[in-house]
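Feature request, filed as a ticket because there's no other form

It would be nice if the structure record came with a short human-readable summary line next to the tokens. Right now we just get the raw output. Example of a typical job, pasted below so the devs can see what we mean:
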Amino acid sequence: MNRATRKLLLPGGIIAVLVAVLLLAPVLPLQDVRAMDIPNRFAGPSAAHWLGQDDFGRDVLARLIWGGRASLFIAVGSALAAAIIGTVLGLLGGYFRGFVEVLTVRAAEILLCLPPLLLALLVVTILGAGTWPLILALTLLYTPNYARVVYAATLQVRGLDYVTAQRSMGAYPLTILGRTILPNVMPPLLVQMSLVVASAMVIESGLSFLGLGVVPPTPSWGLMIRSARGAMEQAPMLLVWPSLALAGTILTFNLLCDRLQEALDPREVTRGGALWMRGRARRRNVEPVAQAESGPLVEIRDLAISVGHNPKVDLVRRAGLTVMPGETVALVGESGSGKTLTSLALLGLLPDQLRVTAGEMLYRTRDGEVVNLADLDEEGFRNLRGPEVSMVFQDASAALNPVHRVGDQLAEALRAGGMTDEAKVQTRVVELLRHVGIPDPERRRRAYPHELSGGQRQRAMIALAVANTPRLLVADEPTTALDPTIQAQILDLFRTLKADTPEMGLIFVTHDLAVVSELADRVVVMYAGEVVETGPVAEVFADPKHPYTAALIASVPEGGAERLRAIPGSVPPPFAMPEGCRFAPRCDHAAPQCKARAPEVSRIDDGRITRCIR
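Raw output as currently delivered:
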């Protein structure tokens, strides 16, 4: 038992005893809560009445237990109902945004315009006093609070890499919401739960105190406080007992939920974990645009990726890229060149604000069907991700879901790919971890991502990407955050994967030209959202045709160089691109005509292309 679990024992034990006593109230040897003994009103504690008798001679202990039963039922019942409704609204609004957000979160926030107590009084006045009208009033009162908390947490989580990775595996939105986003928004949800239970108990007691809550003769702590108020001078302890019960229960619930928040944090838990329903991804046929027996695995033509509508800003324009089966193509350039956006577009994982506005992305499936990825919706991409196209993300610690074990995430990818035999799934998980070089895979598959080293996390990310043997693998700077020794091991792993799956095409996004020379067959150089040069790696490095390519090569440290050559300036922002050639302001060879018009692609005899008038 770890430290976080041990800290649950005290508040959990108190709540368990409290709930057990309240549930067992009908079978406990208690006095009749309605039996009055007027001659002995305000009598002190005795063997028959442990806490004394109230202003009607009724047993205080029995009324305290039965009153807690009513108060806790109303508070917890309304809190759970509001939590379920508000969580669904917040998840849907935060994930889908747009019109769905207006119908869910924004509509629920209308209730926040009304003062809380006034809203409760309004519902109780319309429906009458009683337990169920009070639960309905409190549910309406607290649903917007849950919706806002879950909505804010969903907005923070939905853009993280491990959610994007789930989409890249082909998981359905409801599966992502239930298995990936919901577990990660649970900590703030638990905090909200503690606040709502405490607040609901206070409001219930207040309404009962005013005579608008629980209807006598049913006891509640609010009614007991109301009754004791008029007898404070004769029997002050009648006010103390329900007040202590109310305050103590609220404080214990707050403490329990705080400890639960800590205990459910995966960084504190190495055993156990939340159990969530596992869906099965359905597969549908993708409508082909052509049929081809041979040709490029993927071919990008004049791709444009834009943000905004009026005016529209092109982040990538006139981009072209071709990958043959079994070929490794390196996509290089400085930060802001459009490398990652181009690779994300291939999997339909662009951020919501961006969209493909021009060009084609033709992909040839295993069946020889040529599909234009630029025309696919989310459902179409979901059918391709995993078994056809997959991605290795740069930061494995962000791409792997922190609340699920590594083996469970691999198993989910296999199930999404169509594997249904659970025994085969678990066997395949161990095989994948062993194949990517993770030691002791039988034990490591039960580890959470934070329990693995940086290199092991990246290997697990690669195993996740190749779980369903994709035909096209996109690797977005997978060695950037690793030390040189681990980088070399990851590059060796990619070579092994290519050797084991010779038909798989690989797009390797990087800014490290040394990696390109070791791994790639061809190189595509991007600058400011445009492809400026393409060709075989050896030929491009030996004889670059574009000044930007030559400047990149000159800036790489070499053993015999006395000093490095830096490229002056920086990549211009998308909203301030220069006229003509985008590299002209930083180019040593720029001529007046370079700034007058944008250069077209020039094809060279050996199959190389460059975007330079020279």
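Something like this underneath would help us a lot:
The two ends are 70 Å apart (CA to CA).
The first helix runs from residue 3 to 6.
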